[in-house]
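WARN no homologs supplied; continuing
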Amino acid sequence: MIIREVSALKARKAGIFTKIVIAALMVYAIVTLIKLQDRIEEAENARDALTVQVRELQAGNAGLEHEISHSTDRETLEDVARIKLGFVLPGEIVFYNLND
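OK structure emitted
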């Protein structure tokens, strides 16, 4: 009879210990999932920011490609000569606005 009670007590203690271990594992799993969810959100935000940056750079590249493909046009050459180099055509008078 005493042996049965000791065996039942051991089984009950083992059952409680098992429940505590399972509960601890569940808490660990939940905490890990929450941390992973935060990391996923950070990664998605970083991806979205990089996507915007890529689109901006692609638009800039398209503008540069357009400038390169039209760099030998007469109008483009005249604009560069006037704006960047300060050249004028013979007989032209240049007025500068000093108020800006």
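The chain has one domain: 2-84.
OK
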